[in-house]
Amino acid sequence: MRTLEACDRFIIKPTHDSVQGKNVRLIKPSVDNVKQAIEGYGKDFIAQEVLEQSEMTARFNPSSLNTFRITTLNINGKCSLCSIVFRCGNGDGVVDNLGAGGIMIGVTEDGRIHDYGFDKKYNKHYSSNNGQLFKGSVIPQMKGIVELAKRWHEKYFIHSGIVGFDIAMNNNNEPVMIEVNLMYPGIQTEQLCTGPLFGERTKEVIDYCSKNKKN
After folding, report:
1. Per residue in 132-143, pLDDT tens?
2. Per-residue confidence at 19, pLDDT binned at 50, 70, 90?
3. CATH assignment of 51-211, given 3.30.70.360, 3.30.470.20, 2.60.40.2250, 2.170.190.11?
4. Which listed site, 38, 57, 118, 166, has its alpha carbon 20 to 30 Å from 188?
């Protein structure tokens, strides 16, 4: 408690069932009652430091932590990339999720952000809500970030066939893990932004699931 009260600000959220940024809050001890805020989350919560993000991602919406959802597949002894989508928030919100008014945009493995993205109603957007165009934007570090996500999957999540990593970039343009999604990594909007999720491995996934059905 004292550690959190001594912070200038921090993020608090549930450790599970925080889909679409639900119950993610920015707490400022100088304004908010820290004890009361913590009690509202019961026992299952996490407090995180506020990350100063890269200018490359902040320009699309400065108030929210804008992240990359990188989905990887690891079956039959092979880990591969499924999709990369960039997510930027809206207005004064601190989260970048679609449910909070954000936009999801496809990204190529070499870091090129697609010309347009989509909101939760599948409306097409060529710019973020603050007017920043997506076309022509490139994240040079993306190849390295993807390789990092694949290594994490192979090392820490060997029992999960598909994992959705939420990765931000700090103000030194270094990747920072924000969250790992194991139950609902996302398929529908990812495919809308980048195409078939499993690509050339689609039949392999179908065969794998057919051979490993639950009783």
Report:
1. 999 999 999 999
2. low
3. 3.30.470.20
4. 57
